[in-house]
Amino acid sequence: METVHNAAVVKHGDEYVMLFRSHLRTGRSIIGLARSHDGFQFTADPEPFLTSARDSPFADYEEFGVEDPRVTFLEGEYLITYSAYSRNGVRIALAKTKDFRQVERISLITEADYRNVVIFPEKFNGLYARLDRPHSEIAPWSIWISYSPDLRFWGESQLIMRPEPYHWMK
């Protein structure tokens, strides 16, 4: 691993677990894992926690790497959203783990050009909820909320926040 950025940290049992974006020497992004007993001094595992998938459908959307993890503890397991990069753009994928040793990919949960999806740690009116940041020319870098009955299919999306106009948005 050559770099470390965009980390997510959660408490798991008696330790803190950090998932972070890193790059291999090939330039491909991976998600690494580090552990800490005090939340300040972390030791990275020597092997990546999550690398680009080799099997469809994930392989088609992760060919350039996996990045920017977000972690939520919900219903006895940790849900991990991450950016899947490919020649087709950026999609958000969902994976889960109970122990940060085994990880299971669940679904690609957005269309192209979404960033920074985080799932709420509880349901609202029986539905899972997430915040996301689709990139569009209509509402660039705005934050939306969406709902799902099953963590796979999302809808009822509503714009909840727009950035203030700034020189880089023109």
List the keywords.
170 residues, mainly beta, four-stranded antiparallel sheet, 1 helix, 2% helix, globular
Structure description:
There is one protein chain. The chain is mainly beta and 170 residues long. Helices cover 2% and strands 51% of the residues. The chain contains one helix and twelve strands. A four-stranded antiparallel beta sheet has the order 1-2-3-4, with no helix packed on it. Strands 5-6-7-8 form a four-stranded antiparallel beta sheet. It has a four-stranded antiparallel beta sheet with strand order 9-10-11-12, with no helix packed on it. The protein starts with a strand and ends in a 9-residue tail after the last strand. The model has no long low-confidence stretch (mean pLDDT 92).
SSE blueprint and pairings:
Layout: E1 5-12, E2 15-23, E3 29-36, E4 43-44, H1 58-61, E5 65-74, E6 77-86, E7 89-97, E8 104-108, E9 114-119, E10 128-134, E11 143-148, E12 155-161
Antiparallel strand pairs: 1-2, 2-3, 3-4, 5-6, 6-7, 7-8, 9-10, 10-11, 11-12
Question: How is this structure best summarized?
Answer:
This protein has one helix and twelve strands; from the N terminus they run ββββαββββββββ. 29% of the residues are buried.
Count of individual helical segments: 1
Q: In whole angstroms, how far apart are the ends? A: 35 Å
Helix content: under 10%
What is the overall pLDDT average? 92
Rg, nearest Å: 16 Å
Strand order across the biggest sheet?
A: 1-2-3-4
Largest sheet: 4 strands, antiparallel
Tally the beta strands. Answer: 12
Structural class: mainly beta
